[in-house]
Amino acid sequence: MTILRPKPAARPASATSPALSDSQRRFGRDWRLAAAFLAPTGLLIAALILFPIVSSMITSTTERHGAETVFVGLDNFTALIDDPVFHTGVLNSFVFTAYAEIFKVTLGLIAALMLHHMRRGRAVLAGIILLPWVVPTVVTAFTWRALFDPIFGSVNTVFTATGIGPALAAIGLVDSWPAEWLSNPELAMPAVILVNVWKGIPFFTVTFLAGLKAIDSGLYEAAMVDGASPWQRFRHVTLPGLRHVMIVTVLLSSIWTFNNFDLIWLMTQGGPGNATAPYVMVAYSKAIQQLQLGAGAAVTLVMLPIVGILVLFLVRLMRRSDGPGTGDTGRSRLTPAQRKAMPWVVVAVSTLLLVWSSPHIVWKAALVLGVFVLISAVVGRTVSTLAARGNQRAARWVNGVSSGLALTGLLLFVLAPLYWMTVTAFKSDSQIVMRTNELWPTPWSTEQFTNLFSGRAFGTWYLNTILVAGASTLIALICAALAGYALARLKFRGSESFTVTILLTYVMPGALLFIPLYQMMSGIGLNDSLWSLVVTYPTFTLPFATWLLVGYFKSIPAELEESALVDGCTRLGAFVRIVLPLAKPGLLAVALFTLTNAWNEFLFAFVFITRNEYRTLPVGMQSMIFGDVVPHGQLAAASLLISIPVVLMYAFGQRFLTEGLTAGAVKG
């Protein structure tokens, strides 16, 4: 039986809530609990990110003279004005980033649109396309390096057999055939750009696919009722709906790509000459190889304003999407016409810079990109024309066949390097050297795995990687859960400033930190120790984990905690008993990301660790190469073994990853 009771009369505020103390009125209602929750994250960020940046600024004003370090003021910065190696490094970073982003946006958008319109098998194909992003960078670099090898690689062999190679030479995309992809200054940069595109397409595809799902389907229905063609719906509904996601994705990817070190170092070490050396490699050479820490710090800091502008713009976009009133009002001082023209201005300026900086690449990139765009436009126009004439069956057939061919091409591009790595791992040395049974080992052999464990410290490297990745993930997860909840739920003064700091450190590139962190680890005696990695890895795992969990905690209804508080539960008890169980998808997504980032990390491990017994897998695999002697079979076997755990984790955690990203990154 339901008993109806009269609604109690409203009580004054003093009766319904406890009186606030002076400190609570000054610092916020929950400032004590917030301080406790934020202390671990605040200390780590201050000690590992903010302090090292300040230390790097001080170091940049010094110079090493023998055993002494002397103050030189701005001499290290002024020396860069006439440093041709630095100029080449900055130019290479810009060229590498610009071309990579153009192709990743184009191909990622095409892949996302195809997956979005699929009715069956979308999850399976999305998981397959995600593989290049999942596998470690060291695996990507060594696999493609082997494929591009002019003697043992399969790219020249396959392209020669199919006639593609001579055709590329005939139209001038390559100077001669067979091509020397990584030893030719004209081809080395396009080759490393291609590999970065291969690895980056999944990130763009996943984020664009999430953005497409968020677009209201009613907008498409209204456009179809108004007679809009597929191109018009794409231009006036899809692109505006993806605008924010595209800008944030491109900015994030641009910051990461501009500061890339590991992929280029592992593939070319900046060669031939300095044809592919980015500015980060110039800083590494000066600081670590030449022991001029001041000059190396100056190289990274002189690029800080450029990175800073991108970071601040990105933070503004992220905060705008997270706050109330995200409409056009007060969003920008630009007029609507100026905002509409701004992207075209950026495109025009970037194109002119690319024409000036890389005339030998720009026309080749324009030709390849033009082919993709032209084919897409022709198919779209054909489908639209057939539909307008009432021939829906033919339109569906053309659309299905073209989508099938495009997906087949994309899957071949994604899976071919991974397939080559797998079959090479099961070939004997004689099969690899004699080039027999190129696409299928006959017979299958475990020789490479036996040699890998019998003659090298591979097992030790594997154990080191597990220990470092596990410990750093546990630290990041605990600190991020506490800080994320405090920023999402607790009321205290300074919460917005702390959130902005998290966002800033989230996108702060490791290139700005490895020199001062190297000094710090040397000063406290942690170099050549696994502790140096466990301590420093939160610099790139903790900010992301905190930012994602802030968004996820905000997606959990606050009424659940309020009910627990009414029933006498403390705020800490509500966090442990109510929020954490509901946040399992977000916590698993964070654990998956932080674990794989720590598993794949190369730069810090390469700089901090020199002793073989303390190396992690990426650095250990790099040490397997002696000059021009490359053990392709053992590297393939090692690549397979280092990739399997990550792929399995993503396969089992894909559902939680998608749910965690949707609730955290997209809404946050």
C-alpha geometry = globular
**Total strand segments:** 2
Number of helices: 33
Computed Rg: 27 Å
Low-confidence stretches: 1-17, 323-331, 662-668
Tell me about the largest β-sheet. 2 strands, antiparallel
Strand content of the residues, in percent?
under 5%
Rounded to the nearest angstrom, the distance between the terminal CA atoms is 44 Å
> How do the strands line up in the largest sheet?
1-2
SS-based class: mainly alpha
> What would the average pLDDT be, to the nearest integer?
82
Residue share in helices?
over 70%
Characterize this entry briefly:
The protein is mainly α. Helices cover 74% and strands 1% of the residues.
Q: Your description of this structure?
A:
The protein is mostly helical. Helix content is 74%, strand content 1%. It has helices at residues 13-16, 22-27, 31-59, 75-79, 84-116, 122-129, 131-134, 137-147, 154-162, 164-170, 185-214, 217-225, 230-258, 262-267, 279-289, 293-302, 304-322, 336-357, 359-388, 392-425, 429-434, 447-455, 458-489, 495-506, 514-523, 530-536, 538-555, 558-566, 571-582, 584-600, 603-608, 617-622, 632-666; strands spanning 62-65, 68-71. It has a two-stranded antiparallel ribbon. The radius of gyration is 27 Å and the shape is globular. Mean pLDDT is 82; it is low at 1-17, 323-331 and 662-668.
Walk me through the topology.
Elements: H1 13-16, H2 22-27, H3 31-59, E1 62-65, E2 68-71, H4 75-79, H5 84-116, H6 122-129, H7 131-134, H8 137-147, H9 154-162, H10 164-170, H11 185-214, H12 217-225, H13 230-258, H14 262-267, H15 279-289, H16 293-302, H17 304-322, H18 336-357, H19 359-388, H20 392-425, H21 429-434, H22 447-455, H23 458-489, H24 495-506, H25 514-523, H26 530-536, H27 538-555, H28 558-566, H29 571-582, H30 584-600, H31 603-608, H32 617-622, H33 632-666
Helix pairs in contact: 3-16, 3-23, 3-25, 3-27, 5-11, 5-13, 5-15, 8-20, 8-33, 11-13, 13-17, 15-16, 18-19, 19-20, 20-33, 22-33, 23-26, 23-27, 23-30, 24-27, 27-30, 27-33, 28-29, 30-33
